[in-house]
Write the structure tokens for this entry.
Amino acid sequence: MRYPLRLAPSFVAALLLTGCSRNPNVEIVGSYFPGWMISLVAGVALTGISHVFLRRRRLLHTIGHPAVIYPAMVVLFTCLLWLCFFA
């Protein structure tokens, strides 16, 4: 008689955790939302941090034209973050 009462909390916990089994990424026209959006925001932030680092080290004149380098850095950081955390 006492055995089913011990399993009752485990049964209730199992029922409540069934909603956690789904991946939060939703595929919309081939892209996984919101994983790529989070990666893009973090990629832009890492590019800003890289700019500050390069300016403090006085390396801005050695990296090339900013119109080419900074978008490339955003794409690089975004793809790396997406591959590390969502792929």
Observations:
- The beta strands are 26-28, 31-33.
